[in-house]
Amino acid sequence: MIARLLVTALLLTACGGAGSGTAVVATHTPGPIADTWLRHGSTWREVAGPHPSPRYAAAMAYDAARHDFVLFGGQFGGVSYDETWTFDGETWTRLDPAHKPPPRRDAAMAYEPSRQIVVLYGGLIPDSAEGSEAADTWTWDGRDWTQVSAENSGPRFRVAARMVSAGDHVVLFGGHVFNVRYFGDAWTLDGSRWIRFDHDPTPAGRGEAAVAWNPDDSSLFVAGGLGLRPDAGPGNLGIARQDGWVLRNGSWTPITAAGPPAVYDAAAIWDGSTHAIVLMFGMVCPNPVSDAWSWNGSAWKRSSLPVPARWSAAVAEGSSGDVLVFGGDDESGC
Hints:
Elements: E1 7-14, E2 21-28, E3 32-40, E4 43-46, E5 59-63, E6 68-72, E7 75-76, E8 79-80, E9 84-87, E10 92-95, E11 108-112, E12 117-121, E13 124-125, E14 132-133, E15 137-140, E16 145-149, E17 162-166, E18 169-173, E19 176-177, E20 181-182, E21 186-190, E22 193-196, E23 210-214, E24 219-223, E25 226-227, E26 239-240, E27 244-248, E28 251-255, E29 267-271, E30 276-280, E31 283-284, E32 287-288, E33 291-295, E34 300-304, E35 314-317, E36 323-329
Antiparallel strand pairs: 1-2, 3-4, 3-36, 5-6, 6-9, 7-8, 9-10, 11-12, 12-15, 13-14, 15-16, 17-18, 18-21, 19-20, 21-22, 23-24, 24-27, 25-26, 27-28, 29-30, 30-33, 31-32, 33-34, 35-36
């Protein structure tokens, strides 16, 4: 069981008068969080104002056609969400579309430029037990959700897969079915049909990996994640992975340079200003981290983010290079 620790934060609240203030002691129990951070250029700032409630494992993507970020789902305690939120760079807005996917956590989501839609796939849908993996595909057009398929003959049922925009299309990687089967394959959506984007041999199967697209050489970057723990039952968390891989022209190549420790539930983005992949946040057992590891194709470089440590945050990059971070979880334990 993940231990919950009590920490105390000191907040200054401005009062009336010439800059006077009162120290107010507030408590925070580590767990799901609801803060919003935006990076513009090299500067990070926390965004104030109304926002979605605390949650982890929400899916988020930048909708380039409508110039906003879209967030769906997530988890808090025993509650899975089916909410759709957008963020325009300053303000969060909760939408009420006529149709929507069932509630879930750890779905994969990305923007498909060719059709100017956001694609959502899979995740864990709550049931009377531990939840069930989904194999459904949904699209968002800025107004409503449309179910493309309930199942498919391609990636089928999986949770904690990751999806990225890749050229004019989307690419889906990895995922798992509890601690029973883990996937290391890649797929792309062709209309309503998923087709393989790579060929065997693939990396060892994993979920909760950090994935990003490198537009300079049209390659898929994969690092970390959780893989099969063969000596444990289906409810086990899995084994944290330390390896990294690059998929180019259908073939996988391992990253051999020394880099990040074993990490899962991290995020990765493409930094166009440095032409590098940046892996950020995640769980390095037993603690969440605020590390940023930059991969330039030949070497890793570590730095620290001015954003509190967390794992399973919703992270997406806008078309101008702005990076949005929402929520996640700051509990320790593995």
